[in-house]
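Notebook entry, structure prediction.
Reason for the run: the old model in the group folder had no record of what sequence produced it. Starting over properly, with the input documented here first.
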Amino acid sequence: MKQPPALDEPPPGGVPPGPPEAMPTEPSAWAPMRRRMFRALWTAQLAANMGTWMQTVGAQWLMGDLGGGPLEVALVQTATTLPVFALVVPAGALGDILDQRRLLLGGQLLMFLGAAGLAAVTGADQVTPTLLLLLTALMGVGEAFCISSFQAIQPELVSKEEIPQAALLNSANGNVARAAGPALGGLLISAAGPAATFGINALSFLGVLVVLYAWRRPATHRPLGSEHVRGAIRAGARYVRRAPEFGAVLGRSGLFMLFAGGLWALLPAIARGPLGMSAGGYGLLLGCVGVGAVAGALALPAVRPRTTTNGLVTVAMVLYAATMAVIGLVHSSIVAALALIVSGLAWVAVLSTLSASAQILLPVWARTRALAYYQLVFMGGQALGGVGWGLVADWFGVQSAFVIAGVGLALTTVAGMRTMPLPAGHIDVEHVQHWPEPESMQTPGRNLGPVLVIVEWQVERANAEAFIQAMRPVGQARRRTGATIWGLYEDMEDPTVFLETFTVVSEREHLRQHLERGTKEDQELELRARGLTRPGTAPRVRHLIWAYARDRSQELSDHDGETAARDGALAAHQH
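New structure, fully documented this time:
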């Protein structure tokens, strides 16, 4: 799903003119629209999203015309989402190490070529189910290169306070298109056939390409140069594993999409079958989802301050589950349409809230690669759900599949609310260099390693237990930013001395910890630990490089450095 970013004055993260007490506590829902680039991309994305929804109707309906059953129709969704599932992680790493504008242009160009090719073969009456799925998958490849970068650039282009509003407007953008695009697609299929929807979708990408081409994004300053793709992927994976708040967002997203994706996969089958509707009727059903989503976008700014993030997402998920069960139990197209309006409202509440939470929780250096895991979970749930619910529909019937999915979503939502609560407090991930650059290490840093860092802390006996507990989140922060193994040791002869040890794959990677990856939240965690140390003392830091580095005259590859880090750390711990 294509996401619009934002841009303009005041500068990102800057403080608007005027005294702080005069500023509203909650920005207007339309605040991001004051930004010129946001308006341009929002408008271009509206046209592109409408084209995409028109194509969705055309592709699913065409698969039915080609003789496909519920499973084959559901595979259209899988063809769209599976390439994203497979490629979004390396694409996210590329988004953090390359120019995101060029990456977005390349992805949009691939989607244009896929839509144009599908229009050509369909218009020439040469389309087959396999070709339909392959060209749809090509557009999915383009989307994989765009989806995380579109999300990641928003926090750098709008103020931190406007991120929830920007996420909501982006959801509204897609859902305004969801309201109009399917209905227009159904009418266009009836008048001119599916090829027309594919052709219009191809043209709709041109507006986004023009806006992105005209955007002059400031160059990203990287003191140590760009990372290698493999190293960037591993760094992103380490960050996600050690960020429990972001992990909760991933878990709730995955559970939701695994069941909620059944609606999108099976709605064409239930419209064509039990409800007995035409292509135009199916488009109107999808339009009802869009109407509900637009209503939700208008209502959410008033609702959000009155509830918690966890409560809002939980209620919206349960409401969505109830609408799925209703659609599976009724045979009335009117009742189904009303239920879909409610499901659209719940859908936008869940997606905009989870998306805003994900963006706010991530620092700049890891934002695109971590959001890639968010999209991996999101699209993976849709892809697996498309196949899974198609099989369930084949075995038990399409209406039973809706009921089963609704009940499953309700049960997992209640369980997720307790086991994976969404963060309610504010986490400050603004970049700050809170450790001085180590004088013993070269700049820009060699790729030799691993490096063993030893920090000696002097702690009063009365504070020892509190210090041990305070260092646990510090250890998480070290791992998030690059440490492979971390430990805290108490001196057996002098219990006021603690040694913190951690290994990093190379000198250069450790310098990235110092220069590029620190946040205010990490700084605050360390300050809490320092507050428990002996007055007048400061931590003593030593940097050691593994004595058995295989060749000090050559740079280690990321893979060799990672292996050496494990070997060196294990050897250090054994001795």
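Summary: The chain has two domains: 29-216+227-419, 451-574.
The old model has been moved to the deprecated folder.
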